[in-house]
Design a protein that fits this description.
Elements lengths: L4 H12 L8 H26 L7 H18 L4 H23 L6 H19 L9 E2 L5 E2 L2 E2 L3 H23 L2 H8 L4 H6 L4 H27 L1 E2 L6 H14 L4 H25 L7 H15 L4 H6 L29 E12 L2 E12 L3 E5 L6 H8 L7 E6 L2 E2 L5 H6 L2 E3 L12 H6 L10 H5 L4 H17 L15 H13 L5 E5 L7 H16 L3 E5 L3 H7 L2 E6 L2 E6 L1 H6 L1 H8 L4
Parallel strand pairs: 7-12, 7-13, 10-11, 11-12
Antiparallel strand pairs: 1-4, 2-3, 5-6, 5-8, 8-9, 13-14
Length: about 600
């Protein structure tokens, strides 16, 4: 209840504002516009700030929502309330059609793509006869409850802000879920997310549609607020402004959308009202001053005003507790015989004329720790990427439990019980340790986005967080469970990655330089943990440069040099192998 108290207070304050004696109608209109902008910016918070997809075209989705209700209510006499789901549906369908193409774009092509279709749709709205071309559609009936018509800004005010509050709650619920963690993981690239079963195209499309539906809701409210719809509010300039609002408020924060909308809308209105008096109305300087002030604001608070403000308030984040008595179903354990879990048969990977992995063959058996060693550039991490589906093999065969995986995507490989860490740590720095580790259990949950928004996933979520807390305790980081992952040392971040991989409940654990950045005692604890995992039925394949760590831990060692396997055997045999000594260990070994 204490977590919801600020929301309740905010709702009460917003409800009482129109009732204040002498409240100027102009301020109510301004608050209406802030609420409409906040809805669009809230979608951009999820799309851009959380999901990492920059869009300049959200205003077009407002147009879909506005024009849908405008046409149906004026031409066909449909009730405004009946047009609401249809407006959201049309916006969602448009997002599906545009998103299938857009979310596959990367880098600067993504925002350029959104600008392109944003401009195209703006001109489409202005050219279609049944949409009134440039003049638009007027005479849109007001929203009504019985005989009560929301004709004035003060009456539709409550409809707008109820929509804002409901959307904020649903968005916060979505982010605090299995689906939300998958979306948030997209900001750090798709490789780590896919390694734990996240279907990244589906997750990107989901957030794209959700943002479009919120924009469509804003457009529906706008049409019945203004009682008219024309192309101007749905053009490229409005799309850029909505993105400004999200960035100014704090691109990764839901309430930042509301704050950013308030700042930008009020600032624009003040400048448009007073600058003409100051400069005699001879030039339109408000756009220039507006841009300068926004740049100054972002210099003061580069991450947005909301995080800047909350960092300076005496607020305490509630500690997340997980009931570790809750459990998830375990995967079937590897048999105690010498069954082969992983088999590489002449695996080869070429990048143009460069051969990174040259016909490498080896296997990993059940209850075995195998080390993959070699000098820098030997092809060790590339071999990991071939095994886990990040890269496809040029030739050869790779199988897990007898199933071919050389051309399988990472999401299919992890389903077989293969989990991994990365040479370069791939955590989400602004998520807590608990949330990062819980991403590893993504495939072990079942609740979807809709269930998450309405808090129907709490039992499933409790089990996922309990599993994450259990693995964090297992690796010895319980004291850091609520810290942001980005605040930890590199060594601790590597341990967090191991905990995340353990949440898969894997049969085969691939560790890429797990001891890098660890102190001596931390390495000893890690070695003890890996032996414990092996004795419990798990196999481990690790890449490591610390030869003392490897020689004391591994059951077998495979040595690569320039992508070619030059030796394989027990640690004692590898120490004495002349080729290994020459290529990697050196005479001192």
């Amino acid at each position: 209840m204490t977590q919801r108290l600020p929301l309740v207070i905010f709702a009460l304050v917003m409800a009482l504002i129109p009732l204040v004696p002498g409240m100027p109608p102009f301020w109510i209109v301004l608050l209406d516009n802030i609420g409409l902008a906040a809805l669009v910016a809230m979608g951009l918070v999820l799309l851009t700030g959380v999901g990492g997809l920059t869009s300049f075209g959200q205003a077009a989705f407002c147009g879909f929502g506005a024009y849908t209700t405008a046409v149906l209510t004026t031409a066909y006499g449909v009730s405004p309330w009946l047009t609401l789901p249809l407006s959201l549906l049309v916006s969602g369908i448009a997002a599906v059609l545009l998103g299938i193409v857009t979310v596959r774009l990367f880098g600067h092509y993504l925002p350029l793509g959104t600008i392109a279709w944003g401009i195209a749709l703006f001109y489409l709205f202005s050219k279609l006869e049944f949409l009134g071309r440039n003049d638009g559609i007027s005479g849109i009936p007001p929203v009504a409850i019985g005989s009560y018509e929301m004709l004035s800004p003060g009456t539709i005010y409550y409809a707008i802000w109820i929509a804002v509050l409901i959307s904020a709650v649903l968005t916060l619920n979505l982010l605090d879920s299995r689906t939300g963690r998958a979306i948030r993981a997209l900001r750090r690239g798709h490789i780590a997310a896919e390694a734990f079963g996240v279907q990244t195209p589906r997750a990107k499309l989901l957030v794209f549609i959700y943002a479009a539906v919120l924009a469509g809701l804003s457009g529906w409210l706008y049409a019945h607020f203004q009682r008219a719809a024309n192309p101007t509010p749905f053009g490229p300039q409005a799309g850029i402004e909505y993105l400004f609002i999200a960035v100014v408020g704090g691109a990764g924060y839901v309430w930042g959308a509301v704050l950013g909308a308030g700042i930008v809308v009020i600032l624009k209105e003040v400048l448009q009202s007073y600058l003409p008096y100051i400069f005699g109305g001879q030039s339109q300087l408000e756009t220039i001053v507006f841009g300068i002030l926004l740049v100054m604001l972002l210099q003061l608070a580069p991450s947005g005003v909301w995080p800047w403000l909350t960092a300076r308030l005496p607020l305490k984040t509630a500690r997340r507790t997980a009931d570790t008595s809750l459990t998830l179903p375990a995967r079937e354990r590897a048999p105690s015989t010498s069954a082969v879990l992983l088999q590489l048969d002449k695996a080869r990977k070429q990048f143009g004329g460069v051969t990174a992995v040259n016909d490498v063959s080896f296997d990993v058996k059940a209850r075995e720790i195998v080390a993959l060693i070699g000098p820098n550039g030997a092809g060790k991490s590339t071999t990991f990427n071939l095994i886990t589906g990040v890269l496809t093999a040029t030739s050869g065969a790779i199988s897990v439990l007898g199933r071919k995986v050389e051309n399988a995507p990472p999401q299919e490989v992890v389903k077989l019980g293969v989990a991994r860490t990365f040479q370069h740590v791939k955590l989400v720095p602004d998520m807590t340790v608990l949330e990062n580790v819980a991403i590893g259990a993504h495939l072990r949950g079942a609740s979807g986005a809709v269930a998450s928004m309405f808090r129907l996933d709490r039992a499933d979520e409790a089990r996922l967080l309990a599993e994450a807390a259990r693995q964090i305790e297992r690796v010895g980081l319980t004291d850091q469970i609520d810290q942001l992952a980005g605040s930890l040392s590199l060594g601790q971040q590597r341990i967090v990655e191991i905990a995340r991989a353990l949440c898969v409940d894997p049969m085969l654990l691939l560790l890429d330089e797990p001891a890098a950045g660890l102190r001596h005692m931390e390495k000893q604890r890690l070695a003890a943990l890996l032996r414990q995992l092996r004795d419990g039925g798990m196999s481990v394949l690790l890449v490591e440069h610390d030869m003392g760590f490897v020689m004391d831990l591994a059951d077998r060692i495979v040595v690569l040099d320039f992508g070619t396997k030059i030796a394989e055997g027990t640690p004692a045999a590898i120490k004495k192998n002349p080729e290994v000594i020459k290529a990697y260990l050196g005479a001192a070994a």
